[in-house]
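Example record

The entry below shows one chain as it appears in the dataset: sequence first, then structure tokens.
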Amino acid sequence: MTETTKQSPHDPRLLKLAAAALWAAVAEDWTRANKAAQMIGDEFGGDGVVTAMIGWADTVIAQTPGLVGDGRPVRLAFQQLETGHIDYDAERVPDGVRWAGRLLTARAADDEDAFAALIDSVPDDVTFSRNVGCVLQMAALNLRALQTATAGEGESQ
């Protein structure tokens, strides 16, 4: 996995870059999103990238009504964009998407051991980069869906 740097993973610049990557991804500006994510890796190393993924996950979690806090277990599901079909079989999705879904689920369940195990399971930098991209894309898709749902609620009132 990517080496860490001497800069703090809680540096305000890191947080600004993570936010820029996420909101650019929500806006489907993948050039800006990828540039900001690459800058995180270049300037803050692996620890900074993990911190960014935590921030992306926490943003989705905080914006999703009823996702956590009711004492029920968190269950991983994938929704097909084209059909809206919900699938609970993680084996039917690409590896990076499955990894990203499991990472977001571990964070939502506050399962630090599962989260750390997923980070440690990545065999190389290429796979790590792919997985980070999947986390960013999954967070953006969820936030975009929440924005659309929220906008629709406002119209029906």
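Notes for this example: Residues 12-156 form one domain. The helical segments are 12-26, 30-63, 95-108, 112-120, 125-156.
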